[in-house]
From TrEMBL, chain A:
Cofactor(s) named in the record: FMN
Coiled coil (UniProt feature): none
Residue ranges occupied by any 2Fe-2S ferredoxin-type domain in the UniProt entry: 233-320
Keywords: 2Fe-2S, Flavoprotein, FMN, Iron, Iron-sulfur, Metal-binding, Oxidoreductase
Keyword Signal belongs to the record: no
GO molecular-function terms, A-Z: 2 iron, 2 sulfur cluster binding; metal ion binding; oxidoreductase activity
Native species: Methylopila jiangsuensis
Keyword Oxidoreductase: yes
FAD-binding FR-type domain mapped to chain residues: 4-109
CDD domains: fer2, PDR_like
SUPFAM superfamilies: 2Fe-2S ferredoxin-like, Ferredoxin reductase-like, C-terminal NADP-linked domain, Riboflavin synthase domain-like
Record's protein name: Ferredoxin--NADP(+) reductase
């Protein structure tokens, strides 16, 4: 199976953490313990909507020590393509869903001497897990957490209890700004920075790190991007002899899945590289929305990431 | 440029100034000084933020040290030997901060030791900029007695510790900064291929 092993789970607890964030606790339907994961990992949740299966990646907040549950946090996005709306409106305690095995594309670098964890809004979910692992291993770390206002900081109380003054908050409503140039000077050699949050924030933090002379090897980020919408187009799989239409509100990967194709994927957010496909023909411009392919890959026009990228044109022919 | 033969064989991409670094920490040995001169000559802004450590090694008498001193970097530490240079580097690394870019140039054994030392201070080996200059001589660990032999130029060679005849592999240990030497006549003692001068 292209997405790996699927684990049936039941929702056992839902917490309205803020006006826009719900936290869900999943328990395994089988009763077998859920697998341990390294902090920074995510799962893809499969949601049985009326007309299709929605698959969204969510970072894991934590796992009960006995493996009896996982927690995820879901932000209700105003421009939801169905996933966050489904989780917020359709899912109740007792709902059964499937999740994939945890995958970690945002791991801690354990050789690091110090770890700066930076989160914006819902980006706290992987950071929460990472901070917990660093606390348990008695590592050196700081948490910098930016949010709109204190009431939107779903995780503040739990973080404060666990991490004390290692947690620094930046609240828009208090005119507190997370300035990367205030955090980065005088950090010891071997420090690593991890950032998760809105795209603009991630870019600003990473650019601040580069500007401070930090090597790329010490800068880490994760962003799950919803597949951007666009114009509809056709896709044809040369080897499989399958053709289908990609709707404007649908990703290429979703269209292939709807057509019954077992296409490869892991993160579904343009990060991991698993769904890379070779382009044979494209009678238009490839719109690359991933952050995996290199500039050279893009210039070649020979590769596309199925999960987030599309064609601005009529027909795309893939070597699948 | 040395070609990669197997995966662990390091590739040295050459010194290249990191314009955004807040501090340049440069270690050179022997002819590695020439790579440093190539990188830093005329770069006054970088020199004002540069600390240079230099051990002349096999290039003593060629005045490379005087040329490095003439660059007038912010800090210049001429040191008599590799071990004294590594001691000084260790002291600097203990209090170094992020934004420091580490560079190393010289023989492979020296590069390996500096990268391993930086790694022990939490620096990713990938972020150390390296350039191989001078002899191709290898630092080799005997996999049998674990003794290190410096400046190995031929294979097979006789282990300087246990006396076994060792074939020099391309298998490289980043932790040790050394290639692996394996007994060449274990099955038929005394049957030793002729030594070839491979690493001059």
């Amino acid at each position: 199976m292209s997405g790996g092993i699927e684990i049936p789970v039941r929702v056992v607890e839902i917490e309205q953490a803020t006006a826009t964030v719900k936290r869900f606790r999943f328990a395994p339907v089988s009763g077998e313990p859920l697998p341990p994961f390294s902090s920074g990992a995510h799962v893809v949740v499969l949601m049985p909507a009326a007309d299709r299966t929605i698959r969204n990646a969510y970072s894991l907040i934590d796992r009960a020590e006995d493996g009896s549950s996982y927690r995820i946090g879901v932000l209700r996005t105003p421009q939801s393509r169905g996933g966050s709306a489904f989780m917020h409106e359709q899912v109740t305690v007792g709902t059964e869903l499937k999740i994939t095995m945890p995958v970690n594309l945002f791991p801690l670098v354990h050789a690091g001497r110090k770890h700066l964890l930076i989160a914006g809004g819902i980006g706290i979910t992987p950071i929460f897990a990472m901070a917990e692992e660093l606390r348990r291993t008695d590592a050196s770390y700081e948490i910098h957490y930016a949010m709109r206002n204190t009431s939107s900081g779903a995780f503040v109380d739990e973080l404060r209890a666990r991490h004390g003054d290692k947690l620094k908050l930046y609240r828009d409503d208090f005119q507190e700004t997370l300035a990367v140039d205030a955090i980065l000077p005088n950090q010891p050699l071997g420090a690593h920075l991890y950032v998760c949050g809105p795209a603009g924030m991630i870019e600003a933090i990473l650019e601040g790190g580069r500007e401070a002379g930090w090597p790329e090897e010490n800068l880490h980020s994760e962003r799950f991007q919803a597949p951007p919408t666009g114009e509809p187009f056709s896709v044809r799989l040369a080897k499989a002899g399958i053709a289908c239409e990609v709707r404007g509100d649908q990703s290429l990967l979703e269209a292939l899945e709807q057509a019954g194709v077992d296409a490869p994927f892991l993160c579904r957010g343009g990060a991991c590289g698993q769904c890379e496909a070779a382009v044979i023909e494209a009678d238009g411009e490839l719109v690359h929305n991933d952050h995996y392919l290199t500039e050279a890959d893009r210039a070649s026009g020979a590769k596309i990431m199925l999960c987030v990228s599309r064609l601005k044109g009529r027909e795309l022919v893939l070597d699948l | 440029m040395l070609a990669a033969t197997i995966k662990s064989r390091p590739i040295y991409e050459g010194l290249r100034l990191d314009g955004r670094a807040k501090r340049h920490l440069v270690a050179a040995e022997g002819e590695g000084a020439l790579a440093v001169l190539d990188m830093l000559a005329g770069e006054d802004a970088a020199l004002a933020r540069a600390t240079l450590l230099y051990a002349p090694g096999g290039s003593a008498g060629q005045e490379h040290g005087a040329k490095l001193a003439a660059l007038r970097p912010d800090g210049f530490h001429p040191l008599p030997t590799q071990p004294t240079l590594l001691n000084r580097l260790e002291v600097i690394l203990q209090t170094a901060t992020m934004g420091t870019r580490i560079y190393v140039a010289g023989t492979e054994g020296f590069i390996g030791k500096v990268v391993a030392l930086a790694q022990a201070h939490g620096v990713d080996p990938q972020s150390v900029r390296t350039e191989h200059r001078g002899s191709l001589a290898r630092r080799v660990q005997c996999v049998h007695c674990k003794g290190m032999t410096e400046n190995v130029t031929a294979s097979p060679f006789v282990c300087s510790h246990c006396g076994l005849n060792l074939f020099v592999r391309d298998h490289y240990s980043r932790r040790l900064g050394a290639f692996q030497g394996v007994c060449v006549d274990a099955e038929v003692p005394g049957e030793i291929p002729p030594a070839e001068e491979l690493f001059r």
